[in-house]
Design brief:
This protein starts with a helix and ends in a 52-residue tail after the last strand. Strands 1, 2, 3, 4, 5 and 6 form a six-stranded antiparallel beta sheet that branches. The chain has helices at residues 3-14, 29-46, 53-67, 78-111, 126-129, 186-204, 207-210, 216-219, 229-238, and strands at residues 167-168, 258-260, 266-275, 281-295, 302-315, 329-338. A hairpin with a 6-residue loop joins strand 4 (281-295) and strand 5 (302-315). It is elongated. The chain has nine helices and six strands; from the N terminus they run αααααβααααβββββ. The model is unreliable at 1-24, 74-83 and 117-126 (pLDDT under 50). With 390 residues, the chain is of the alpha+beta class.
Length: 390
Amino acid sequence: MNALSQRLELCFVSDKPSEEPSSTPEIPDDVWEQFARDTERDIRGSAPKEPSARARLVTERLRQQEARGEQPEGWRTGPAGRERGGRTARRRRLWAIGGVAVALAVVVVAMKPSLLPGDPFGKGSSQAAASSLPAETAAPTAPPAATDPEPPTLDEPFAGSPALRWADGAAGIALPEATAVGGLPKDRVELALQQTRKLLVHANLDPKTLRGERPEAVLAVLDPQQPDLVDDVNRSLRAPGKDDDPLRMFSRFDPADVELVGEVIKTRGRMTFAKGDQGGVAVHADYTFVYPLVRTDGSTEVTRTIVRRVLDVELLDPARYRATPGRLDVLRYDVSSGNSACGVYDGYLHPRFDSADPTGAPATGPTTDPYDRSGNLDTDPDTCGSVSRV
């Protein structure tokens, strides 16, 4: 065998598979088949898919709406977005309503700042800042201190007046505690005090009396068996005059001329009791009433009339005297009127206003402080002076 033949034979021998077992394990056919199926499925799932005709139509319509600025309900918002949108709309409506209310409140306060509590603008409103005085338990020894010279207004009719700190109306007629006195029982004293208070209230605070109507409640307190008293009062009410003046017992204003500003009349004074000279319960009362007034012609100018009354009454014992049980015997009823026309006897008080022509006769008496209750009351009916303040 030549050399070429030998080389070919060796090559063929080396290409034959070895009979020895391989070190790499053989993969079974069923495993290969499963691998092939899984691979084919994954390839099909990841391959791009052609959208359906309906999907393409919806997508195109949404794209066109977005391009035009339109946003269909739920587009990129979802249910939560719609709910937030509803709450936002409600909040906007609430803010709008609240804004209108705040604007109206600002306008009202700007027109009438006194509606605000306290003194938010630092004006020092006398009406808001004043505190009530305690009840009077003894006669004052001096006139009230001077106050800021504020003019009265419709909103603050007691501005610039010492009466600003006085009690309102009947609250200013506080009764002392009733006790037995001089052998008279406590209940008799209490009755005398209550009847005196009723007389003062209905003669000076009752709206009907102030308008000039017949003061029936006062007449119901007076003893009709007291000589001449009830007859004198009735005559003064029927035909007022210089000698028969109802103002000696009643505060009255002509409703065709003036009217009260608001419903408050300021009151201050005191009441005491003792055993009387006739053996009954004697009551002494000294009270001042301040009336804010405006003319009925449409004017807004406010003035005040100040009336001081001093009463001495006695509740008699019907067993000892000719008297009506529970009725008062009037021993004294003196009065002074500050800021009212002189020499007018028509049964009404006529307050003076700075902007109006004087009514009645010129004042010839001295100038006095109508708030001064520290001295005795001038009982001369012909004395009519001017006042230092109203």
